[in-house]
Amino acid sequence: MLKKILYADAGVGNSQEMFQVLMDLPVIQSASITILHVVSEQISADAVATKWEEGGKMLAGLIEKLDLDTHRVTTMLRQGEPKDTVRQVAAEIDADLIIMGSRGLKRLEAILGNSVSQYVFQLTNRPMLLVKDDNYVKKIKRIMVAMDKSPAAQYALELAIYLLRGYPEGELVLSRVNPDLKPELLPLSRSEIDNNPILAPAAAQAKRQGVKCRSIVTGGRPAAEICNLASEYNIDLLLIGSPERRPSIARSLPDLDRLLGTSLSDYVRVNSPCPVLLARTDR
pLDDT for 219-252, tens place per residue? Predict the structure, then answer.
């Protein structure tokens, strides 16, 4: 499912640490890895050679630092506009997952600040793992999936089960935030949670794959509550569905809802206390 991973390294932020802890997962250890470093084209001709040499040293140092198997890792040094180059390389290698760092900028700040990760997030149709600069990256023990009835959420569930397969230290946390659930009905009984029509099939699916899991049901505003639950349950990696909502003719254009920060996935991307994997199903 995640056979080809593209890691876009900028040399800063927490994405290197996240990449390193991912390598503890058995299924990731068998994946082929492409590590990309982009030298900006917006520099003088005299500086290109220096930046190119620095980029090569950075890639070599990263492989040594992370103790990666060179037989499974390809390094790639490109010159260009980073936000376009990441998408181009992802298409070239047919990446199943893109890993990038993120400043976690809100709304139009990301656009005005020329955020590479925000641009790629807007336009890619591939699953994307975003690691904010202020995320505290920990060894993966608890992966949470925000569940609803959407195909994207189901795909996020399948990705989470895949990541935890053969990893006895891990636990899957299935969360359902029902905005129609009245506060006076909370907290729900364990029986009500275990028989939730959305979570019960998901839990059964996880258990068939030998993945330990538990379920949580609450009410409130889904985006905010998902972030609250991630904090409360000390989640190490959060997966949410992020479906493509534009018609195919408009998919080369940014999604205005996400640009303005009004979508659930954008809110969670900015406010999650842990790294977020955004699952896309429209490839």
Answer: 999 999 999 999 999 999 999 998 754 434 344 5
pLDDT of residue 154: 96
User: 151-180, pLDDT tens digit by residue?
Assistant: 999 999 999 999 999 999 999 999 999 999
Could you write out the three-class secondary structure of the chain?
CCCEEEEECCCCCCHHHHHHHHCCCHHHHCCEEEEEEEEECCCCHHHHHHHHHHHHHHHHHHHHHHCCCCCCEEEEEEEECHHHHHHHHHHHHCCCEEEEEECCCCHHHHHHCCCHHHHHHHHCCCCEEEEECCCCCCCCCEEEEECCCCHHHHHHHHHHHHHHCCCCCCEEEEEEEECCCCHHHCCCCHHHHHCCCCHHHHHHHHHHCCCCEEEEEEECCHHHHHHHHHHHCCCCEEEEECCCCCCHHHCCCCCHHHHCCCCHHHHHHHHCCCCEEEECCCC
- Classify residue 45 as exposed, middle or buried by CB count within 10 Å of its CB (0-12, 13-18, 19+): exposed
Map out the domains of the chain as residue ranges: 4-132, 142-279
Cβ atoms of 124 and 32 within 8 Å: the answer is: no
pLDDT at 32 over 70: yes
Question: Are the folds of 4-132 and 142-279 the same?
Answer: yes
CA distance 34 to 50: 23
CATH of domain 142-279: 3.40.50.620
Given this model, what pLDDT does residue 282 score? 64
| Domain covering 4-132 assigned CATH 3.40.1440.10 in the classification | no
Q: pLDDT tens digits, residue range 106-128?
A: 444 444 445 788 888 888 889 99
The residue with greater pLDDT, 231 or 29, is 231
